[in-house]
Amino acid sequence: MSSEISNDEKQKKQRVFIVNSIEATVRIGLVVLVIYLCLTIIRPFFVPILWGLIIATSLYPIHKWVTAKLGNSDRISAFLITFSGLGLLVSMSIGFSSALIANLKTLSGKFTRGENIIPVPPESLQDWPLIGEPLYAFWLNATQDIEAVLIQFAPELKTFGESLLASVGAMSIGFFQFIAAIVISGFVLANADICKDFSVRFLTRLIGENGPAYADVSGKIVSGVTQGILGVSLIQSALALAGFVVMDVPAAGVWALLCLVLGVVQIGALPVIIGVAIYVFVTNDNTLTTVIFLAWSLVVGVIDNIIKPLVMGRGINVPTVIIFLGAIGGFISSGMIGLFTGAVILVIGYSLFQAWLANSLELPAPEESTE
Known about the structure:
By secondary structure, this protein is an all-alpha fold. It has a domain at 226-363. Helix content is 82%, strand content 0%.
């Protein structure tokens, strides 16, 4: 009799277990389905939202300063910062596009009229060891018969042209993503306290009692890395552009943009600056201006090595390869805007992972709001 009761209890427990398992599976499935649908809907806006959050976090100290000057008006401060950011982005894009179009029109006009679009190489180039003679001969041939040179390298130029068109298309998409990101950052700054409280509550729920400290550290990492990567690269490329424009270097905007990209991926703008400096050295007849430009190029080429440690040295110790992989991976996956977001995200993940591994990181206490 007791064995029959025991069997009935086992069967009852099994039925309860099966019912609970099915119910839990259905609930988990519904949660996963809702999360999947939400991610699918928000996926086209994920990169601009992410970049907007990064911009807002980086500009938060400026936002607080402007807010204090305006009598604690958060929304007016956020509007002014957003409007200034949009104006700067649009004006820089228009200036770059106008300069590029003007250079292309000039080159096209010279090519149509049969004029030389390549300056004659200086005789001193022949005295360079190893590469002097062949480089001089190739350069001279290009000035005399540019069409033959173009025909000779037609396959390579075709491939380059296709890649260039694809890059222009990606840059156009990235431009509109930047606009969306700046607008989103404005909304985040206007509701900065709400967003900060949400991040603290989320990380507290996810991590535990160290959530506020991790939120504070994450904010400092975002600010330090964004200013150290993007800020320093922008300063360096702007200074390089100023020198290129003064020396009337062809396609100065393109070379400055290349300096910006190389600076973000941690290769550095020095290779481009050295190449332009060599071009100016062999084509410019004014010795004084050439020497001044070479000195300027040397300073601009190494300025990132001086500024970057000062900006990123606030408790952030990240290997260069992490930033490089983040920038390249972000560019491959998300285009031009991913060049910046990828580096920041990977640095945040690496830093928090290192903190988790160490398990003895002295996390600073979260800063209390002074408001």
